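Consider the following assembly input.
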Amino acid sequence: MGGDIYVYISAEDSVTIAIIKRLLAFTSPRFKVFKNIPARGGEIKSKIQELNKLSETRPVVALLDLDANACAPILKQSLLQGNAQNIDFIFNIAIDEAEAWLMADKVGFARYFGISQQLIPDSSMQRMGGMKLVQELDSPMKSSLQLTHQIMPSSINAELRVQMMAQGKAAKGKEYNSAIVPFIDEVWDVTAASANSDSLRRMVKRLKNLISRYP
Amino acid sequence: MILSKIELVNWKNFHKCDVELSERTFIVGANASGKSNFLDAFRFLHDVAKAGGGLQTAVSSRGGLKKIRCLAARIRTDIEFVVHVKESFDATDEWVYTLAFKGIGGGIMKKEVVIIKEEVKFGEEVLLSRSIDSPREDTDTLKYTHLEQANANQSFRELRNFFVNIEYLNVVPQLVRESNSVLFSSEKEDFYGRNFMQRLAKMNKATSAAYFRRVNEVLRLAVPQLSELQLAYDEMGVPHLEARYEHWRAQGSKQQEEQFSDGTLRLIGFLFALLDSKGIVLLEEPETNLHSAIVAQLPEFIAKLQRSKKETRQVFITTHSYDMLATNGLSSEEVILLKPSKEGTEVISAANLDDVNAELRAGFSMADAIMPYTKPENVDSISMLKI
């Protein structure tokens, strides 16, 4: 086993940051976070060029949500603005949101959040705006919205329900992040979730490839 | 004149510090890393040199030696300042002022400090060198620096005046507003904006009018509903800041400083300090109470003001503000990072951090590059605490 690999990480919120950290730890104990480049809501999209350039000095692992964009490769292309993606720039797009990756571990997610597995959408092969068929959760709406508005209201865990359910016109609950991060850190089964999400599987694969380049 | 470099030994958080300073220097670090204490090193020099000041007062007003000596001080227990001052950044010759002192007394004896070494050099020339071994020096003469004694500092008066002109400004709106606050004391210096109004009143009329014109220009953009800021005297002859506050009545109404918002007062305070500076200006977290859009403008505004002055006027700014550090054209030489450790706080010029330079080259702002360093490792877990 080689030495530690220090990487930059960048993501838009504490949930996606926690996911990157968990995936790094899941892939290899050799991964160490060198620095977390701050990207405040939405800003990461405007920093892709800089992250790409920065990866010439040491690997950069970034994660952002696909959201309403048509398809991941097209979004990637447009954010890179025609520049070639550096080999050490591990640029990942969660389909359709990081929350979908979490829910993709159906058993763990349902148990932790006190909900029925039936409430979590099944995964299926779908086109997601591109040519290729990909396996992803079949959410009727944005995953986080489905989570806070449709799934959590029926949770039997009163504490988590209050933390995560949106109030008023907010999209998420007031303590959403602090409710979800412990799940990512301690419970989330990455292997099980990968079976339901091609985009998650690809991120793990990219991290494994990165490790293999630094023997 | 400019202060190009400061070396500190055992000063407050800093066991050892040796750092170069720029025309505009931003001091960043986590809470309690020592940002204010770093600025206090410059205020200390000012306090030693100023009229009615002196070494003993400068130490005792800070609560005595115990309060200013670094907790990491072990083998070496004295406090030392070595300050490098030049005519300008490209000048070759420099003044070097060294002051080292330690505590004496205790028990039934009065606790005081005594100078171990005081030295002034200009280029190669030694203008002053005194220690306990010098003839005609004893523990009584060594209680006073030559910096504070007019008849002893003729040969380096320039340097003394430079220290006297160091200004610290942290307008505390509550203190400006409550002029009869128990904390008010006209004896004290204007550190917290207590007698900010009196100071404005004492200014030369033409200068003051020119400053008010410029401050009004900024206010018109930052606080559009306030206009015509001026100094007005009440029936007791007490000076007040007065401005027109526009509202539904055609004429608007006059408001005085006690009605101004916290942000407005702080902005006015900073603007006057910058305009009126005769030497180094120390600004403590100017972002407090201000809208982030105003904060984002401050670095460039400061640079512009500096350029407008005939001589270089250094500004040292402590900040936590992302918006302030995200400004364009901020070079890594202009940023000093304070990094707490078990052996006191480390003082690091961002120019010496390879990754920061690499990130700047990749196109990131200074805020992106330096802020991760100022954030305690597990701070994100605060919201995870079970309460």
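Chain B has twelve helices and 15 strands. Ask yourself how this observation constrains the way the partners meet.
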